Amino acid sequence: MNKPELEKRGPWTILSERLGYENPWMTVREFDVLRPDGSPGLYGVMEPRNLAIGVLPVFDNGDTLLVGQYRFALDAYSWELPEGGGPHGVDPLVSARRELEEETGCTAQNWRKLLELDVSNSISSERAFCFLAWGLNEGQSDRESSEADMITHRLPVHAAIAMAMSGKIRDSLTVIMLLTAAEKARSGVLNPALSRLILSDRS
């Protein structure tokens, strides 16, 4: 009788797999593996139940909105662009519209995908979808109970970029969105009017 073929992931071989932990937001799986050099090893992977969603909102005067909240995992306060989770199988743009309105009360007439990225690819399968939103209309936020301490801070996009470069903003998704938007604006990839808003310096 032939032995069943072992599952391969690129140069990695999976010998066995077991569920380590799960809750409504994540699953953690543990794998006994053969490493690329053939030696035995152990690998743990955290699988979020949702996609990561990020939004860079841009007002008509070149301002954006940061949200401030206390992050339990880091035991630290964090300034970030509007972010959240979106279910797999749902258009990430639909989730982005919802997150922007829930956290800031804003809706946007115009949307453009800014980038996709893998959030922490050594230990997690989490993927992020990030968007630019402009043509904003302000309204009332509708935050979740875990966001009761959240506040917003309106400031020029260039000032938010300066916060990211100085280390005052440490959230990786926020830093990446700000720098990607600035580079795309400088390189002419974006709508010229939107690029001027992102790059405007009113100081």
Give an overview in words.
The protein is an alpha+beta fold and 203 residues long. The protein has two domains: 7-48; 50-199, Nucleoside Triphosphate Pyrophosphohydrolase (Alpha-Beta Complex). The chain is built from four helices and eleven strands. Helix 2 (157-166) packs across helix 3 and helix 3 packs across helix 4 (192-199). It starts with 6 loop residues before the first strand and ends with a helix. The model has no long low-confidence stretch (mean pLDDT 94).
Describe the structure in brief.
With 203 residues, this protein is α+β, with helices and mostly antiparallel strands. The protein has four helices and eleven strands; from the N terminus they run ββββββββαβββααα. Strands 1-2-3-4 form a four-stranded antiparallel sheet, with no helix packed on it. The chain has a four-stranded mixed sheet with strand order 8-5-10-9, with helices on both faces. Strands 7-6-11 form a three-stranded antiparallel sheet.
On the 0 to 100 scale, the average pLDDT is: 94
Strand order of the largest sheet: 1-2-3-4
Which CATH first-tier class of the largest domain would you pick? Alpha Beta
β-sheet strand percentage: 35-45%
Number of E-type strands: 11
Sheet with most strands? 4 strands, antiparallel
Unreliable residue stretches: none
Shape: elongated
Summed up, the helix count is 4
Distance between the termini: 76 Å
- What's the helix-strand series? EEEEEEEEHEEEHHH
CATH homologous superfamily classification of the largest domain: Nucleoside Triphosphate Pyrophosphohydrolase
Indicate the CATH topology of the largest domain. Nucleoside Triphosphate Pyrophosphohydrolase
Give the name of the CATH architecture of the largest domain.
Alpha-Beta Complex
C-alpha Rg, in Å? 20 Å
Total separate domains: 2
